[in-house]
Design brief:
Largest sheet: 6 strands, mixed
Bound molecules: ligand FEV
Number of helices: 16
Structural class: alpha/beta
Helix content: 40-55%
Order of helices and strands: EEHHEHEHEHEHHEHEHHEHEHEEHEHHEH
Strand content: 15-25%
Length: 388
């Protein structure tokens, strides 16, 4: 369960057995034809896969450089890429005979996708969410309630994503035999980073063929925003061996890297341990995770997926950051130039594409993972920009 020195499972002994059980079940179930057929059926007819790859002609024209293409994970059922791994996790929970599925959520997309998947397979679902995020992502809070999950408000610490993970893990530890933790990204102790990546790699498998059908060749650059790193790993995995393809992960620069208010783990973090695994962490001298910030509730996590830490060390992926302000600009630019309202998380990747495109010739191709749609962010952005 390692990616170089990163990953692993630094967890209490009573949890090791539970992790081993999940690893074994995941290994068994994913070989089974009935599981693969059921997952494929749901991805096709319930999620609506394959998601399109869309050429932003007007935006590319306005920027005067490379052609920007979007992988439309925003068009999935529930509005983001999260449904790809939530379906897998819910089917795994049913296969294991679990009585309750527990998870964290920040932007509410993982929470909605998991509540949706648990409603579908008929297992009770409990989602822990920071009070700050409950107020900010209200549309998703209402959807989770309608979908029937138990929503647990978290007020400790910064009352955002990292605290929600702490709270959800505590609940899971009470009964790891009957409960399963359905983590929301490529983070956590082994086997979670591997399992979530495997459920997400359908993104890149589709996009690699689609972009070549559209342009006749591999893209010059692919990019995705990175919170825990699941939508990014989902896109990147299929391209890792294509040396001609430049790969960029885009992190939240928040109020600026010269302030404490960001979550640019790959730029300013150092190797450490968080939530049971080794990765780059924004941490204090005692190894405690630092409080982090992003305008996007799904990106403000002080750790990062261990495979990302490995890919950074190997130099295969470049990690940059985009500030809250650049994110908002991209959010409005994409909305008003292409009629697509992105999630604030995804707008970080769009902002990076907007930055890079003018520096490249018009025959170059940038493929961006549009990880989700901005419905959840409308009230917040309208208030922020005085549009309401
Ligand atoms: C699991 C905590 C993260 C959440 N969302 C993260 C997120 C992210 C960042 O998560 P990763 O892909 O795992 O880096 C990107 N795009 C959208 C639309 C997101 O909602 C959530 O709770 O919905």
């Amino acid at each position: 369960g390692y990616f170089g020195e990163f990953g692993g499972a630094e967890i209490p002994p009573e949890l090791q057995q539970a992790m081993d059980d999940i690893s074994q079940a995941y290994h068994d179930i994913c070989q089974r034809e009935d599981f693969r057929q059921e997952l494929q059926r749901l991805l096709t007819h319930f999620v609506g896969r394959p998601s399109p790859v869309y050429h932003c002609e007007r935006l590319s024209e306005q920027l005067g450089g490379a052609q920007i293409y979007l992988k439309r994970e925003d068009l999935n059922h529930t509005g983001a890429h999260k449904i790809n791994h939530c379906l897998g996790e819910a089917l795994l929970a049913r296969f294991m005979g679990k009585k309750k599925v527990i998870a964290e959520t920040g932007a509410g997309q993982h929470g909605v996708a998991l509540a949706t998947s648990c409603a579908l397979v008929g297992i009770p679902c409990e989602i822990h969410m920071g009070q700050v995020d409950i107020e900010k992502e209200h549309p998703n809070v209402m959807r989770m309630k309608i979908l029937g999950c138990t929503l647990v408000p978290v007020t400790r610490g910064t009352a955002t994503l990292k605290d929600a993970v702490d709270s959800a893990f505590e609940e899971y530890l009470k009964n790891p035999t009957d409960y399963i933790y359905a983590i929301g990204s490529v983070v956590g102790p082994h086997p979670f980073p591997m399992m979530v990546r495997d459920f997400q790699k359908v993104i890149g498998q589709e996009a690699r063929g689609q972009i070549q059908a559209l342009t006749g060749e591999l893209p010059d650059v692919i990019m995705a925003c990175v919170g825990g790193g699941s939508n990014a790993m989902g896109l990147f995995d299929a391209f890792l061996n294509d040396d001609s393809v430049r790969i960029m992960g885009v992190e939240p620069g928040g109020k600026g890297l010269d302030t404490p208010d960001h979550a640019a783990t790959m730029t300013l973090g150092t190797p450490g341990v968080i939530h049971g695994f080794r990765c780059h962490v924004l941490q204090d001298a005692a190894g405690e995770p630092l409080p982090v910030h992003s305008i996007a509730s799904g990106l403000d996590y002080p750790g990062v997926g261990p495979q990302h830490s490995y890919l950074k060390e190997m130099g295969r992926v470049e990690y940059t950051s985009i500030t809250d302000e650049e994110c908002l600009d991209a959010f409005m630019t994409l909305s008003r130039t292409e009629g697509i309202i992105p999630a604030l998380e995804s707008a970080h990747a769009v902002a990076q594409a907007i930055k890079l495109a003018p520096t490249l010739d018009q025959d170059k191709v940038i493929l961006v993972n549009l990880s989700g749609r901005g419905d959840k962010d409308l009230d917040f952005v309208c208030r922020k920009l005085g549009l309401s």
